[in-house]
From TrEMBL:
<protein>
    <submittedName>
        <fullName>Esterase-like activity of phytase family protein</fullName>
    </submittedName>
</protein>
<dbReference type="Pfam" id="PF13449">
    <property type="entry name" value="Phytase-like"/>
</dbReference>
<dbReference type="InterPro" id="IPR027372">
    <property type="entry name" value="Phytase-like_dom"/>
</dbReference>
<dbReference type="InterPro" id="IPR014567">
    <property type="entry name" value="UCP031900"/>
</dbReference>
<keyword id="KW-0732">Signal</keyword>
<feature type="signal peptide">
    <location>
        <begin position="1"/>
        <end position="26"/>
    </location>
</feature>
<feature type="domain" description="Phytase-like">
    <location>
        <begin position="43"/>
        <end position="283"/>
    </location>
</feature>
Amino acid sequence: MPKRRRRALIAALSTCLAAVGAAAPAATLDYVGTYVWRGDEPSFGGFSGIEISADGRGFHVLSDRAWLYWGSIDRDEQGRLRGMNIAGRAHLKDSKGEPLKPGYLGDSEGLAIGADGRIWVSFEGLDRLASYDDPDAPARRQPRPPDLPGMRVNAGLEALAIRDDGSLIALPEKSGRESRPFPVLRFADETWRTMTHLRRDPRWLAVGADFGPDGYLYLLERDFHGLLGFSSRVRRMRLTEDGPRDEEILLETQPLQYDNLEGLSVWHDGQGIRLTLISDDNFLIVQRTELVEYRLRD
């Protein structure tokens, strides 16, 4: 079934349940597997964004040093990830066609790919949004996002997701203080606006987001525990102008259970909704690039 038709069917069923007053079923995540990905190129690592194709066998991943990798995925008969095959990589460019340097100008964090194939990337450092017609093309400049509380170097637009209508949703990594909700920015028709706000729980930072085939927004958050490493959690919700609805925490990991998970892609694997997460190894030998997958069970 085509992805858009599946989403429409799920939305229609949800509307019918709501109309008759049926309670929404509780959802849980079943662990599918973990794959440690290794590469020899100097640009390999630091992955903070990921997009999985609708059939689960293609990928794009974005590093925080302005490199984009893409290729195919090997899976076994149970659909578990068994290999990542790189078909190409590109050093993202600025609007003049010059390769972006790591740091202030090249700190690429969020990745979203539209139905038309356009690649959208959010940057922190110099907080901005850029689009690419293809990975080797110069960036297309977009209007700058508003300056929000908490947005500063290494704490800017971290999570990026695209809706079926082509509009983009972006969240900063931090909100200014732990008691302040995360602002949710919407970008459409070359205009930014604050759509709504999401509750922020102390210590948890927004690092990745994607819209699933069920229409929910899935938000990946991270907590850092020093020598005990990282913990992660995933929230999902229906995003409305009046705030989030039907919000629930699907996953909360223990420190050191996984590496520094920063990227999230949500897709349908034919049996259910699959979540694929990727870790940022910070280009450190003591960390690793890790892909972790879960399947949603309602």
